[in-house]
Design brief:
The protein is α/β, with parallel strands linked by helices. It is built from 5 helices and 9 strands. The protein has a 7-stranded mixed sheet, with helices on both faces.
Length: 201
C-alpha cells in the first residue's frame, strides 16, 4: 500500500483522516501545523498527546519524531482510542505510537518522561494535568495547550507561570477556508483556537 503522507512537513488534509460522528475532530489542519511547530519536535523525541481524539496530532507528531521517537497517546473515550488506532495504522506510524485508554491526569503518571507534551483541553482537570505534565517533562521540554475556551487558555497561562515555565507564548489562531458556491468563493470561518506554549526550565 502506498504511504498516505509522503512529506516531512505537517499539515495532512483533514479529509485524509478516518473520522466518526462519535468523536470530535480531527484538530483542523492549520491548527495542527502551528501546534507541531510550537512543540519544536525533533527526530527521536518522546511526545505525550493528552486527549488524542481522532489521532490527528498523534500522527503528525509521530511523523516528526520517526523513526526512533515515540508518541504516547491517551484518551478516556474508547471510541477515540479506536479512531486514533485506525489513523495511526493508516499513516504507517504504528511502530512509533503507543495508545492507551486512560483518564488524565492519572494516566500521565504511568508514562515515561517526555520532550514535549500536547494537551487538547483538559476536561476540568487542566491544572492537575499541567502539574503532572511539568514533572514528566525533561529540562527544556515543551508543552502546548490547545484551548477552545478563553477560560481554558487563561487557566493554562496562569498555571504555567506558577509552575515556573519560561518563554510562555500565546497565539490566537483564526482560520477561514474557501468554499465554492455558484457565484464564487466564500470564506467559511472555523472556531478560533488559542494555543499556549512554553518551555520547562
Amino acid at each position: 500500500m502506498a504511504k498516505e503522507w509522503v512529506y516531512k512537513t505537517p499539515g495532512i488534509p483533514d479529509e485524509m483522516f478516518n473520522q466518526s460522528d462519535e468523536v470530535p475532530g480531527p484538530t483542523k489542519e492549520e491548527i495542527r501545523v502551528v501546534t507541531i511547530s510550537k512543540a519544536r519536535l525533533r527526530e527521536g523525541d518522546t511526545v505525550i498527546d493528552v486527549g488524542c481524539g481522532t489521532g490527528g496530532l498523534t500522527v503528525e507528531a509521530a511523523l516528526q519524531v520517526a523513526p526512533k521517537g515515540k508518541v504516547y497517546a491517551i484518551d478516556e473515550d474508547e471510541a477515540a482510542i479506536k479512531l486514533t488506532t485506525s489513523n495511526v495504522e493508516k499513516f504507517g506510524v504504528k511502530g512509533n505510537v503507543s495508545i492507551a485508554s486512560g483518564k488524565a491526569p492519572q494516566a500521565l503518571l504511568t508514562l515515561p518522561n517526555a520532550d514535549a507534551i500536547i494537551v487538547g483541553g483538559g476536561g476540568g482537570y487542566l491544572r492537575a494535568i499541567l502539574q503532572i505534565a511539568s514533572s514528566k517533562l525533561k529540562p527544556n521540554g515543551r508543552i502546548v495547550v490547545n484551548a477552545i475556551l478563553l477560560e481554558t487558555a487563561t487557566l493554562a497561562i496562569a498555571e504555567l507561570k506558577e509552575l515556573g515555565f519560561k518563554d510562555i507564548d500565546i497565539a490566537h489562531i483564526s482560520v477561514a477556508k474557501g468554499k465554492q458556491i455558484n457565484s464564487g468563493t466564500m470564506m467559511m470561518a472555523r472556531n478560533p483556537i488559542t494555543i499556549v506554549s512554553a518551555t520547562k526550565l
